[in-house]
Amino acid sequence: MAHKSDIEIAREAKKRPIQEIGARLGIGSDDLLPYGHDKAKVSQTFIDSVQDRPNGKLILVTAINPTPAGEGKTTTTVGLGDGLNRIGKNAAICIREASLGPNFGMKGGAAGGGYAQVVPMEEMNLHFTGDFHAITSAHNLLSAMIDNHIYWGNELEIDQRRVVWRRVLDMNDRALRDVVTSLGGVANGFPRQAGFDITVASEVMAILCLAKNLADLEKRLGDMIVAYRRDRSPVYCRDIKADGAMTVLLKDAMQPNLVQTLENNPAFVHGGPFANIAHGCNSVTATTTALKLADYVVTEAGFGADLGAEKFMNIKCRKAGLAPDAVVLVATCRAMKMNGGVTKDDLGREDVDAIRKGCANLGRHISNVKSFGVPVVVAINHFVTDTDAEVEAVKDYVARQGAEAILCKHWAHGSAGIEDLAHKVVQLAESGAANFAPLYPDEMGLFDKIDTIARRIYHADAAIADKSVRDQLHAWEQQGYGHLPICMAKTQYSFSTDANLRGAPTGHTVPVREVRLSAGAGFVVVICGEIMTMPGLPRQPSAENIRLNDAGEIEGLF
Amino acid sequence: MAHKSDIEIAREAKKRPIQEIGARLGIGSDDLLPYGHDKAKVSQTFIDSVQDRPNGKLILVTAINPTPAGEGKTTTTVGLGDGLNRIGKNAAICIREASLGPNFGMKGGAAGGGYAQVVPMEEMNLHFTGDFHAITSAHNLLSAMIDNHIYWGNELEIDQRRVVWRRVLDMNDRALRDVVTSLGGVANGFPRQAGFDITVASEVMAILCLAKNLADLEKRLGDMIVAYRRDRSPVYCRDIKADGAMTVLLKDAMQPNLVQTLENNPAFVHGGPFANIAHGCNSVTATTTALKLADYVVTEAGFGADLGAEKFMNIKCRKAGLAPDAVVLVATCRAMKMNGGVTKDDLGREDVDAIRKGCANLGRHISNVKSFGVPVVVAINHFVTDTDAEVEAVKDYVARQGAEAILCKHWAHGSAGIEDLAHKVVQLAESGAANFAPLYPDEMGLFDKIDTIARRIYHADAAIADKSVRDQLHAWEQQGYGHLPICMAKTQYSFSTDANLRGAPTGHTVPVREVRLSAGAGFVVVICGEIMTMPGLPRQPSAENIRLNDAGEIEGLF
């Protein structure tokens, strides 16, 4: 096995022209809008033309609660896509786009790893096809129009203290979290408290990822609440008349991006909403388009299955009319060991007992996924330090849960290392075993939905909330928002709201600190803990070492 | 003549695939990085490969002082390019990219007009190939890194009151002109006064447009002054270690964009610096690349010749080693009438006397251009309301100045309407009459350079400045910046600093209010009057009417 870095492997990729990748899916070159020679958008015209086709099988890749050891969810998504193609299936993957800003703080995230990657890796971590820039523009146009409305007389009677629409930048910039704007005198407007989030936290991002088409996008943008009046009645984006222009700014961004894996298989990379205050999945348009073009579509959701899969099922699938045919739950021996109490420095040492102990986390995710009526298989993403005894311990545990765990070596061997999983996924998806249903019905009360997630997914005793929070939820129910699903924002490191509680905790409660209405995206965000929507840069930002070398290659980004 | 709007004409364009346009210039499809089917970037590799070729002829299109009547400088640039191709020459045009933000305030600017336009018009007024978004990202990365540096201990001892590097957005947003950042407590840094400009006002934009290549870009970015210490010593971008990462963010943006005219002739559209606090020309890389690929390159500069041509000559040509072979000075009968005192409402009525009076403005521009040693021809951009007597009055006047004025009907007839001008331009450019020299030598003192521009170009009695301004200029000379050219920022409507003084005023002085050092771009900005670097939106922003119609077309943008 080669000991090359991800970027070295990515740079050696023998990429095919993107038109060839499109042709594999039946997309003619007229319907592929190229961005360079290795990236393209799929035209809306083409997407419209395939709506009557049957859907392929939808496979969700999710994971145990993340640990610093890393699980390799995206790597497994890419590997499985390649594996399915290797065993003769027509498969595509759907993953999220990366946010530009954070790459200048810590080193950039690859799209996958080892021999299971999507390329072009560098462009995907920089401007890519400009989608996030378009979201930034659309978001900030609305911001400017709100202040402009107030400036010119405030006909809508916006309470300037209750403008909830902030601004965004795709940059880690803590100085912009809390600002006072419109200083400097009469010509600059009315000073007020304001602030910036990072672009991926924008409700526009969540909407772009949930909208079925441009008409739906425009409607959802119009539905967004941007401010309140003194009487607490909401002011909508539609009232500001920004929805049409925002849609124009987003019309190209709405078209899914097509790139390729190292093995030249098709990969849709589109959208990237936060996995805490939003639902953390790639776009509905990418997934539904891929399902029309491929027999198998492998996709992933952010964080562990308690957040990612839950939101994928209860928000994305519910709203887009999707139903997964199988779920792959990614685990690693290293992560099991950490869940079993081993510290990061000791991960290199065999510790079967710790694995057995840590498997409780995995077991709970297995039963949770099953509760959605979807068959599940565990992928053990192999690390070179894993011992046979450790792998067997995981397999044994999973077998006792009524599922199967399959060792996967796609990181080291690409599709050749993941054939067994591919065959198993095909078997599960074709078995007809899936009988998907969301966890709760639309009609359930908002707090009951939260409580249901807390009990059924987090295995907590209950969700708890102050009267003010409950009153707010009731008010939204009165205003017609009671049918919305819940978008939980809590730590991804634990089933509980305490990041240090690994494994499969019980006896905990889920305290709700705050609730927010994303009326355009169509969910109620339930915040349990600190949520950071504008990151800062570290003491030594990676940007200090990023540069072009004499060969014109980017150094320091990865 | 059809009475179609610019956008109707643009939508009827029979565009050729951009690869065909590239092939006309000898650019292979591997060296064209497509953005959709009608836009492409020219690869740096290709640009490097043509450096040893001889240059074509460089033609500058400039104009009289602008009036609300409109002169049609870009329209004439496009028309002349088409006209040169029509008469059998291999010609390309080079124009600037449009800023996105202002389109949501007032209706968007087309690239040209009538039958002399560049397409795709809508994309060019929206995200285009993402260059401006890249500049926004690069600029704001530096901003974030400055505040981050201060946050983590301020090793460079930046005086927080003297951070001169602001932030940018490509949006008209007056609320961001003056802000206080880093509020909200310890985790968000040290509160300080800050602000945002529009992206085109960024020094990064000016640098992108003046840099010869990526290495030069990185050096210039490093040279930018971002703050001062208490002892007034400058802190450079290089000290913040942002120059490398900014270069990475700008590496695609540095490659010139290729599109086409309505007549399928090549058009480079690249860069768009402000014409007041910056030099207002398209990029050096686009112009120098075009000169290697075409026998004639037609380009333009912002505002009238007093600002645009002067900066083109003294900043762009000087720094890039370019020398124009001929200048086309655009005038209209309508603008001559306004210069002669006619109000906008009365422009439809014949008024030969007013034209004769207004021609003084044109005459001064003619002699100014000649003073650079470059032959000049006047293009009368025809309006349907122009009478023969009016056109003859302009022609007579110009003839008396020792030049020729040629009536051009490219707006109505495309290249067929501008053949005479094309022939004349060829004759001038091939005559060898050009003997270009900048107005002042590098070695001249900074204030003397300002005074020289004031006297020789504005025909003022003198430039005047407070002691503080003169002291600042002296200080920069001591610090080694004395060799820099001057970038004047004054009203574009008059030779003087009073916008209402039309025609060819004399007896005025040029009061310098403020000077700023753009150490990376490489010029000293001299501000005479109010300069707005962050526009606001009007009471009824055009954004309110911009939307996609049922046919998927953009309404309200034009």
UniProtKB/TrEMBL annotation, chains A, B:
UniProt-listed Pfam families: FTHFS
Reaction catalyzed: (6S)-5,6,7,8-tetrahydrofolate + formate + ATP = (6R)-10-formyltetrahydrofolate + ADP + phosphate
InterPro entries: Formate_THF_ligase (IPR000559), Formate_THF_ligase_CS (IPR020628), P-loop_NTPase (IPR027417)
Gene Ontology biological-process annotations: tetrahydrofolate interconversion
Top-rank EC class of the record's enzyme: ligase
Record GO terms (molecular function): ATP binding; formate-tetrahydrofolate ligase activity
Residues annotated to bind ATP: T67, P68, A69, G70, E71, G72, K73, T74
Listed pathway(s): One-carbon metabolism; tetrahydrofolate interconversion
TM helices/strands, residue ranges: none
Keyword terms of this UniProt record: ATP-binding, Ligase, Nucleotide-binding, One-carbon metabolism
Annotated EC: 6.3.4.3
Assigned protein family: Belongs to the formate--tetrahydrofolate ligase family.
Protein name: Formate--tetrahydrofolate ligase
Source taxonomy: Bacteria, Pseudomonadati, Pseudomonadota, Alphaproteobacteria, Rhodobacterales
